[in-house]
Amino acid sequence: MSPTRGGSQEDQAGEADSVDREAISGTAEGGKGTWRHAAIHVATTIATPAAYAPLPFALASLGWPLGVCSLVIGTLVTWCSSLVVASLWQWNGEKHTSYRLLAKSIFGPWGYWYVSFFQQVASVGNNVAIQIAAGSSLKAVYKHYYAADDSAAVTLQHFILLFGAFEMFLSQLPDIHSLRWVNATCTISTIGFAVTAISITLYDGHRIDRKEVGYSLQGTTATKIFRGFNALGTIAFSFGDAMLPEIQSTIREPVRRNMYKGVSTAYLLIVMSYWTLAFSGYWSFGSEVQPYILSSLTAPAWAIVMANLFAVIQITGCFQIYCRPTYAYFEERIQAKNTRRKAWVWRLMYTSVYMVAITLVAAAMPFFGDFVSVCGAVGFTPLDFVLPALAFLKVGKLPKNPGLRHAIKALGSTVTVFFCVIGALACIGAIRAIVLDIKTYKFFHDI
Length: 447
Prior knowledge:
By secondary structure, this protein is mostly helical. The protein contains 17 helices and no strands. Helix 8 runs antiparallel to helix 14 and helix 8 (about 110-145) packs antiparallel against helix 16. The radius of gyration is 22 Å and the shape is globular.
């Protein structure tokens, strides 16, 4: 089922990915990572504080029944989708070192450009959200120690700038495999954040007068509907992982088996952390829970500081992995012009431009929950829910039994249509929220 050759669009796609196999992973001749490395990279890209800190607010926007169902369905569908993508990594006998190359081999040029566009949206949107989350956590730590010192006032934008400078330093590492120790530290921090945040949430929940905690949906009918749409985008964002083939290209043989183990291990961590924090956060604070759960916590102060520090450490690695598709594009241009001798200069230049742009957007519009929803709706839903189902229907190994084959095809078609609708609704809700926030706050608002 290889794509048909010919056409200017395909020629452009072929030229664009001519060196793509080496640009992201740097392991075109074979990966070196184990299934543990795969689990670390997948957990770093998915199970981040920026992803599951908004989940209690998403549940509060949907209510218990719909919220729990959405979370469980999101977990199961994305886990299966990740296994499907991992199984198709070498489906036609050729290793596909990036998501866009895999899509091109299955769907032709339109698949390449489809993934290129949505992966870029997901990467940029995710990194803007991470910048805001990191700045918010750093400011929370600062306020704990200097809240009473007005002369030392530092705004959220200062912390966003500080985090951006550190990420520009990490951006000089050449590929995903070179981030393995960074991501190992991030995975440990994920566990630390989850344990700390859940513990404080339950502690605060028991301290609060339970009679004052309500779980009814807030606002007018229109507000409830749009907040529900927005929440669906948040849940889609929380399971976002548009980098599986890029990660898989760094794994040693047997690649599929190692990737299956890595993905499943990462999802075990995700279930333990996501579900527990989402349920405990909504139970503790009810409808009044904040979009970033750490903003709702009150005591003990030292533990809140720990949770915020864990959050910042963890998302440093996640930010780097989502930079790689953009960096790969620039590296393609550099290698195409045979400027390898000055590659480090060019790398410093394009990473600096990227970091300045991301930091500027995050500082200007620090609306964390809104960017999470937009990124989930526009970026991750097409890549993590829709495309894997379409790919499996086209080239996946279906059962020989006619009845079972038709049932699987019907299920795949249902998933595709359902999540296309969910993505569109979530996008509407997210855009409406951003418009309302821009009307309420000025640019570079210090939240």
